[in-house]
Amino acid sequence: MESYDVNRLRADFPALSRKVYNRQLVYLDNTATSQTPRQVVKSIEHSYYNTKANVHRGVHTLSQEMTALQEAARERVRGWVNAPSTDEVIFTRGTTEAINLVAASYGTFFKDGDEIIVSVMEHHANIVPWQLLQNRVNVKLRVIPMDDRGVLDLDAYRNLFNSHTAMVAVAHVSNVLGTVNPVAEMISEAHSHGVPVLVDGAQAVAHQRVDVKALDCDFYAFSSHKMYGPSGVGVLYGKRELLEKMPPYQGGGEMIGNVSFEHTTFAELPFKFEAGTPDFIDIAAFKSAIDYLQPIGMDAIAAHEHELLEYTTSRLLEIPGMRIFGTAPDKDAIISFLIGDAHHYDTGMLLDKLGIAVRTGHHCAEPLMHRLGIEGTVRASFGLYNTIEECDTFIAAVKRVAMMLA
Ligand code: PLP
Question: Exposed site from 2, 210, 285, 292, fewest CB < 10 Å?
Answer without folding.
Answer: 2
